[in-house]
Amino acid sequence: MRHPATRLTVRAPAKLNLSLEVLGRHADGYHELCTLFQAVDLSDELHAEPAVDLTLTVEGDAPPGEENLVLRAAHMLAPHAGGRGARMHLRKRIPSGAGLGGGSSDAAAALLALNRLWEVGLGRPQLAAMARALGADVPFFLHSGAALGTGRGDVIEPLPDLPARWFVVSVPPFSLPEKTARVFRELRAEEYTDGARTLRLATMVRGGGSPEQGDLYNGLRGATLRAFADLGPYLAALERVAGQEWALSGAGPACYALAASREEAEDLALCVKSMPGVRYVTSAASGGARW
Length: 291
Known about the structure:
Elements: E1 8-25, E2 31-51, E3 54-59, H1 69-77, E4 85-91, H2 102-117, H3 124-134, H4 138-141, E5 146-150, E6 155-159, E7 166-171, H5 179-186, H6 196-206, E8 217-218, H7 221-227, H8 231-242, E9 247-248, E10 255-259, H9 262-271, E11 278-283
Parallel strand pairs: 1-8, 3-4
Antiparallel strand pairs: 1-2, 2-4, 2-5, 5-6, 7-10, 7-11, 9-10
């Protein structure tokens, strides 16, 4: 007999956009995207256990109240569980507002954890519909690993796991209110592309290949550099110190470089340690369960 879970812990990984293209803008204001997501081992942790009420405490840089996507996800799922409660604790490690998808990943973790804790039994299609209502990146984090994202980035095709790859992620000390909206407002029509670059990269991954630094692309780079006044000089200095190019993740300002091994990644992180901000050495995370 299967017994109800009494306490669950689920990892909520960060993501990198190995390729991101903006194909155009719809009449409703949303942009059509084609992106290749890759989850990494840098992650938050969500703990959940049964309780009378639905509550959330936070350790780290994230709002504790109703504006937190974890609580919004929980309230969305709760009617399917007969109004049951849960005591949740979120331990944050992923920097907020950096383009690494931390809030979206936390929301997906809440859907997965509470679906099991409350024994709701919703399938992935139903959870994906809830995830789309929470944010464009949230459906990806129901799968993690590597995936192709189309539509608003919310139509997900899981891809085979990448061969072992390491990344150095650098998060500069810049913030921007309403960042995503402001970056997309800076986007110019000539920066739209047809998605072919991302689709080629997805084909490579399906065939067991792994991207190199030169394969990485972000169609939001120009718009992000225009929105963040200090990011252009920061990236230029980072690339000069490191002696190689760095890619931008999402709408930034986090940027990253590929490495062939942990040792190479640690050497690169040491090389740029004088740069402002925070560095993370992390590896590609596989899809599947994160319990």
